[in-house]
UniProtKB/TrEMBL annotation:
Hydrolase is among the record's keywords: yes
Limits of the Glycoside hydrolase family 2 immunoglobulin-like beta-sandwich domain: 257-311
Name under which the protein is recorded: beta-mannosidase
Similarity comment: family membership: Belongs to the glycosyl hydrolase 2 family.
Transmembrane regions: none
Reaction(s) the record says it catalyses: Hydrolysis of terminal, non-reducing beta-D-mannose residues in beta-D-mannosides
GO biological process: carbohydrate metabolic process; glycoprotein catabolic process
GO molecular function terms listed in the Swiss-Prot or TrEMBL record: beta-mannosidase activity
SUPFAM superfamilies xref list: (Trans)glycosidases, beta-Galactosidase/glucuronidase domain, Galactose-binding domain-like
Keywords on record: Glycosidase, Hydrolase
EC identifiers of the protein: 3.2.1.25
Amino acid sequence: MALSSHTPVVRLLDADWSLTALDGPVPAHLRRLTVPATVPGSVHTDLLAADLIPDPYLDGNEQLLSWIGLTDWRYSTTFAWNPAGADRSELVFAGLDTIAEIELNGVLLGTTRNMHRSYTFDVGSRLKAGLNELVVVFRSPIKAADAASLELGYRPHVNHHPYNAIRKMACSFGWDWGIDTSTSGLWKPVTLVSWSTARLATVRPIATVRPPAGDRAGSCGGTVQVHVDVARATEAPVSVTAAVAGISCTVELAPGATSGTVTLEVPGVDLWWPAGYGDQPLYDVLVTLHAPDTADTAAELDRSSTRIGFRTVAFDTTPDEQGTPFTLVINGQSVFVRGANWIPDDAFPHRIDRARYQQRLEQAEFANINLIRVWGGGIFESDDFYDLCDERGLLTWQDFLLACAAYAEEAPLGDEIEAEARENVARLAAHPSLVVLNGNNENLWGFQEWNWKLRLDGKTWGAGFYYDIFPAVVAELAPHIGYTPGSPFSPVAGSIRNDLHPNDPEHGTMHIWDLWNQRDYPAYRDYAPRFVAEFGWQGPPTWSTLTESIHDVPLTPESPGMLVHQKAMEGNVKLTDGLLPHLPLPNEIGDWHWAMSLNQATAISTAVEHFRSLSPHCMGSIVWQLNDCWPVTSWAAVDGYGRPKPLLYAIKHAYADRLITIQPRQGGLSVIAVNDSTDAWSGELRVRRYTDAGAVLAEHAEQVTLPARSSVTVPLPASVSAATDAAAELLRAELAGVRGHWFFAEARDTTLTAAEAEVTAVRTAGGYTVQVTVPVLTRDLALLVDMVDPDAQVDDMLVTLLPGESVVFTVTSARDVDPSDFAAPTVLRSTNQLVPR
């Protein structure tokens, strides 16, 4: 249907912008120099496009560019405008980063201090026929944060800038995996919107299920409450019509009324399910705003279309003998969360487009991840991100943006935090994938355990947000989405405020960081958590990313560029300490890179397999982290240039629907079979103890049957589980083609040897198939295909083979590669290469 001439006219102001440095420590050759600017964009990316600065992601350029965050910047453009009879014209800034003053034709429209909000200015009286000048001046965010910290009063925070004093993306100031850009800019679009009578300001459909869900046959009824806020230029009566699935309803708004609710009852809706639990049907909700015209017919003023899904969300926190569980329940079905934490995918988030979100989420799907937690030091993620998660059945958890710090609750900061919360909860409320809104990252823990109480000296620290404001906002705007006051958090039935330690493994969610920071990864098995929302282990980026971003000669773990790209406190020391109990420390950089990559993967496999073996006592694990925002040594499974590290394959194996894992239990070893699929799993479980030469020393077999969403523990007799020569023996357990392994000794203490494998590589339409047959026991066989083609992908990695066994890797690559390159010892990798003999 064609839109009426009464509908808003939206004009994107993305052309003819320029950028000028103002006050600050600006290099002499850039002072008062004006360069073209891109909107959306940032100072760094505009200067980079003008070839005036080096790439901040390379070598030691981060420090060279630190002056940018100490400088004030001027963005300006001119645009033509002619009156067209609209009642109102508004300038809409979807995102300003961060401390900004906006002028139109020399008149100050307003000042802003929040990256996480949009701003709308009525400019009808300020526009003039012909050319108009729009200027946005950004003040130094570092200086602004320092000044605000003094004004508000010091409050504890991590890292070196008081990011908690202003509403800017916390990791923009650097993190223990992040570059310090402290940039500024118009990071979201700027539009000029002209309209008459009224327009839709906010459309918030809330889809609920009736009766209580649990029927996967699709016979549930659905209710959609469409809450509408209307901006008005006149007091004229207007009507709102909402339609979904062939059902429509109209509500009349009285003259001057600015809000209304349209309720639709939809029979026989299909439920939206997480991936692996069912389908993801989505319904379009069309909302139109009308006003009577002179011919007594309804003239359309505005319209909006939103996709919704019907599902229910609950947390099972019913106390039991072991403490308090934290089980996510969707449509009445308990879900074991196989999650990963998410940070902004670029230090300059305006560069992340829908295609990039899709690539990253496809990598999450590849790794069998079913939930993405959006961490609270980044941003409220984009509609593209959430749309893609809706389509894929990827559950999402969005933190409110308060992380690892105490926050002032008083104005002006408190008002800004509440305003951004209200805007973003309303914006995201319709997405069925969003099932958790979380008050903060680690702030309850920090207040309890990080000596904040002394340092705060009685000042507010954020409790009012977590226990009062945020739950009230969620209850009002998104009551169908679950809320927790923080991560980690220990719940008590009937109250979100309690005296339990927030990181108690017996209660609710926990973060495990003594592993990596102080203790070795086998100690993950010392924990019996109910739900783990953060845990991780560091590793370098892929080799191609490392060598593209760091050009040290010689390149070593401690060469200058490497240290710039290692942000963790004593990160290299922890890498070394975490490797040596398992493998010797290599002296050659290629072997060092492989050893640290492998150790990261093994650490997380150890953790995830243990947590899954505890189900249903433990009902979730969220690995820190899926992605990176720049090329860096970090906890990520996908590096800053989007390339999968060995860790992604380890997660894929450990998060598979069906898992066989061997774990210590009650003084011996047991096989735990985990079936997280929709179908029963049965067959003969066969466990064999082998020599490293492949000879069978002992075996145990028994029939097992696992219903859907269940696990079974099979204790092993000592005749199988006790080694006679720990250095030269292993266990393999197998059920219906799914395998698990147990080595009795650390790799460095075994008889593993490196031997030349038989490798056959064949060109295919999309790349190569590479068959590898090993002559000796081979642990964690991997094909590091980025070494031969930085854009190549391989379908699997970290495969353990007995002597004479084979594996076929499928490589996707557009490059002509000499097939022998796949057999190179720097490409075809294994644990064996790291055990010197």
